[in-house]
Design brief:
- The protein has a seven-stranded mixed β-sheet, with helices on both faces.
- Helix 1 crosses helix 2.
- It has a single domain, classed as Gcn5-related N-acetyltransferase (GNAT) (Aminopeptidase).
- With 148 residues, it is of the alpha+beta class.
- It has four helices and seven strands.
- The chain binds coenzyme A.
- The site of coenzyme A has 19 residues, from strand 4, helix 3 and helix 4.
């Protein structure tokens, strides 16, 4: 997947990102939500493009030296080919440039691919939030890496 490139998300990406979001998540954010993120000073969002088409996106909020991941997603037809690894690596580089020294996120225990991806970047499960996901009442695993 060497022809994928990453750049900061802009307002013009909101439609494409919201379309991917709807494909990926049970409780998707809207285009307005992503549009708002481009104006949120805490937010650091990137998109991955192939031939001018947005195929992946990721975002985090950076507060002081801590980054909290809000989104990580790859178009369904491109999964399992290393795009998620490139994307998450690019997100980590972006939040480190803004001073983040630790990164945290919540993930469904059933989301094996995502958990493997995060573990490969040194995140470890440190606890659970009971019934965190409103669509099916699933717990969330809380993962951290405190040594970015
Ligand atoms: C999670 C996600 C971003 C991973 O993207 P991807 O492009 O498939 O990731 P990669 O190809 O780089 O693979 C990353 C790791 O996951 C593993 N993996 C990928 N698909 C897998 C699957 N279906 N089952 C088990 N492991 C899988 C890979 O083996 C790899 O681990 P490794 O480095 O130990 O080999 C992607 O599946 C996705 O967009 N899912 C829907 C949205 C989502 O759930 N986001 C996370 C919310 S917290």
């Amino acid at each position: 997947m060497e022809h994928i490139t990453f750049r900061p998300m802009t307002q013009a990406d909101a439609d494409a990102v919201a379309a991917l979001e709807a494909q990926c998540f049970a409780m998707p954010w809207s285009r307005e939500d992503f549009w708002r993120e481009t104006r949120n000073e805490l937010a650091e969002y990137i998109v991955g493009e192939i031939d001018g088409q947005v195929v992946a996106y990721a975002g985090a909020w950076v507060s002081f030296d801590q980054a909290e991941v809000m989104h990580v997603a790859v178009a369904s037809e491109l999964r399992g080919q290393g795009v998620g690894t490139l994307l998450f690596g690019a997100l980590i580089e972006s939040v480190k440039r803004r001073g983040a020294k630790s990164i945290t996120l919540e993930v469904r225990p059933s989301n094996v691919a995502a958990i493997k991806l995060y573990e490969s970047f040194g995140l470890r499960s440190v606890g659970r939030r009971k019934g965190y996901y409103l669509d099916n009442g699933e717990d969330a695993l809380i993962m951290w890496n405190t040594k970015l």
